[in-house]
Amino acid sequence: MNKFKQETFNDFIKDNGVYGFFPDSITLASGRKSYFYANWRNVVEDVYLTNQLAQFILDFIDDMGMKVDTFYGIPDGATKIGIITQNNHAFRSDHYKKGSHTLSMGRKTPKTHGALKDRYFVGAPKGKTLVLEDVTTTGGSAFKNVLSMSEAGVDIVGVISLTNRMQKTTENTAVSDMFKNAGFDFYSMSTSFDMLPIIYNPTTHGEELGRKVEEEFDQYGVNSLKLL
Questions:
Q1: Distance CA 199, CA 32 (A)
Q2: In what order do the strands lie in the sheet with 186-188?
């Protein structure tokens, strides 16, 4: 019986304001214009909610039968998620003791000197490492981090995006394909295809906004999206 319940996780996302809409477009870090946001700030600013999120992540990887020694969050967005998930992972282990689990954190800006692992990490990941990303748009930042980690000798067993916006990379491919072509398994715990129809209400948000979001996916999405 699966531990991870997609509908429950989607409700968690909705109830905690991870998704929302803008009446006027904003410019994302990727440089693209968008009429919706996906942001985990409301969750990771709260210890109770972050612990709940960690349990969702642990249930998700348990269902896949994945063996993980270290959970690592891409800085800065997923740093706290990685730390809390690793804590929860260690606490429920049957061999939790001094020296049994590493607590790893990445540097947003790598150092220019020292050992390779010290340049990228405050405490390098050990063993089989699962990389966590909060929100994936083009995937460029996470991909760069994963390549650097692999170069530093980290054994990466997979990359998990909490929220995949389901938009194409700058090379016009799916983010999952970009990672898989480089030899890394990529998983999404939720996608905009699932969440936006749940969040969007034409009465509240207006049909014009719905059309603009649909046009956004026509331009950038791996597939089209119908809201109206």
A1: 21
A2: 70-73, 128-136, 155-164, 186-188
Query: Which of 187, 140, 118 has the alpha carbon at shortest distance from 28?
Result: 140
What does the block give as tokens for 87?
């804590």
Q: How far is CA 16 from CA 2, 94, 159, 199, in A?
A: 24, 32, 24, 12
pLDDT at 116: 67
Q: What is the sign of the dihedral through the CA atoms of 39, 41, 161 and 120?
A: positive
Give the chain's end-to-end CA distance (angstroms, integer). Answer: 36
CB 72 within 8 A of CB 131: yes
CA-CA distances (angstroms) from residue 193 to 19, 68, 84?
Answer: 12, 28, 28
Residue 40 has pLDDT above 70, yes or no: yes
**The tokens 């063993």 sit on which residue?**
127
Contact status, residue 51 vs residue 68, Cβ threshold 8 Å = no
- Segment 97-109 shows an average pLDDT of 88
Residue from 79, 161, 88 nearest 125 by CA: 79
Helix (H, G, I), strand (E, B) or coil at 27: strand
pLDDT band (50, 70, 90) for residue 31? confident
Confidence of residue 107 (pLDDT cuts 50, 70, 90): confident
Structural domains in the chain plus CATH codes: 6-220 (3.40.50.2020)
Rounded to whole angstroms, how far apart are CA atoms 108 and 75?
5
Query: What mean pLDDT do residues 43-72 have?
Result: 97
